[in-house]
């Protein structure tokens, strides 16, 4: 067995030391939850009667209190393709629970918004804080003290982090994430990008664009590109919170049905009354968080997780920062090329060997923590095998080699020697840049700044021909406190067109980019944000800006005396539409992107005295 990479060991040890006081406080908190409050033994007869009044055939079993009752927290709605399959899951879960003498109840539902629907629209301003709303909804669902285990039904961008943040407050409960899988492949990704850029140039109309988009997003399941949703599923595998291999099995298949059934059976076996108790708060420890970051680097995962992973970690009393991300990225090779980093989608990735191959390769080369407490029977070794059906029985088998080295390569011949997520710092602050899909010739961009406070103004300038030059497009007042930190993926086609015309182009923003960010260099999550006098607010049109992923620097090339003397511009007034104003409290109390941009975690730590 190969020894753990020394840099991974060093970063892990640093996180453990940094986190020690808060982690101890967290573990004490969930221990008290199990022993002194959040369990059925504390409920009165009236409490119990309310809780099982409508439980039908399960009522006698729930009433005795002798069997595990599983709480289902579901993000079902039938507008999101990824979550539409969950409509029938509760009944199937209840049947599977009865097979092992347990019961299940839907504890609650949480909202699940689609960034694909709100991208570039006013609703995107609610997107990031929907994660905290989901966390609160999950906590409400599990607060009824009726459950000895939890099944979390959610996949997409903010949903999985939100479910975990909420469930970790009830970390004494064994908990399994239950995905529903990606939709089958549709229109080839290269063709989709071509049509989008033609539309941005005015060379095709809306009908042609809608036809292409409809052929891409065409059925039930997650979108098939490797954005934040599918990066979520990857992370749940390397953290050991799924049944092994559950991430990328298509909805509606027999294998999907059986692996969901296996998750229910397994949850019944890891309760606190048995000999294999595996509570969520112990499964998510410092090593599991490091594994999540390593998985992001090895597969070219979404930059959104530079925000979500620190937030999930904080909910478990663990502190990570972007320096940890950068140091891990330097030693973790890129093993996968999944669109937008390559041509094939997650279905092609799964066919090539998927997460089982990635995990096996990383483990065999000392690049993942094997000894974590997973929801499976052993440790992370279980996740290096793929699930299959043989004679109707669910089994797991080895994958000796990649089935397609254009999609998936071994550690010995990776696509890149590092993970492609860079930390940039300088007189503009700290930010991250994903370079796994950026041509190395564009890792350094030095050009005059064009300043905007709204992404629609960028598109107007593009259409007017005002950006036909080398340019660093700066979109500021997009941070969590300013407007909720929306994604700016709407800019991707226009910036891609400028780059294809031969210009040096980069995006600098205190907002987010999509998990599908690709070939255009994008320095994102810039902190401190413009609102509150972050340095990005000092930039003026025409200032030379240098963004360099090679040296890890982001600089305004302005005389220091002149720079320090500049006054801050007036922040744009907040818009009032789509319910954004309801989230004013969240915006006012959010903290830095590097800490997770979470108002509820900041408030919780303050109350607990961290």
TrEMBL record:
Catalytic activity: 6-phospho-D-gluconate = 2-dehydro-3-deoxy-6-phospho-D-gluconate + H2O
GO molecular function, one term: 4 iron, 4 sulfur cluster binding
Cofactor binding notes: Binds 1 [4Fe-4S] cluster.
InterPro entries in alphabetical order: 6-phosphgluc_deHydtase, Dihydro-acid_dehy_C, DiOHA_6PGluconate_deHydtase_CS, ILV_EDD_C, ILV_EDD_N, IlvD/EDD_N
Cofactor: [4Fe-4S] cluster
UniProt entry keywords in alphabetical sequence: 4Fe-4S, Carbohydrate metabolism, Gluconate utilization, Iron, Iron-sulfur, Lyase, Metal-binding
Domain Dihydroxy-acid/6-phosphogluconate dehydratase C-terminal: 407-597
Dihydroxy-acid/6-phosphogluconate dehydratase N-terminal domain segment(s): 70-381
Residue numbers binding [4Fe-4S] cluster: 156, 223
EC number: 4.2.1.12
Pathway: Carbohydrate metabolism; Entner-Doudoroff pathway
GO terms of biological process kind: D-gluconate metabolic process; Entner-Doudoroff pathway through 6-phosphogluconate
A GO CC term assigned to this protein in UniProt: cytosol
Family indicated by similarity: Belongs to the IlvD/Edd family.
PANTHER family: D-XYLONATE DEHYDRATASE, PHOSPHOGLUCONATE DEHYDRATASE
Function (record text): Catalyzes the dehydration of 6-phospho-D-gluconate to 2-dehydro-3-deoxy-6-phospho-D-gluconate.
Protein name, UniProt field: Phosphogluconate dehydratase
Organism name: Sphingobium wenxiniae (strain DSM 21828 / CGMCC 1.7748 / JZ-1)
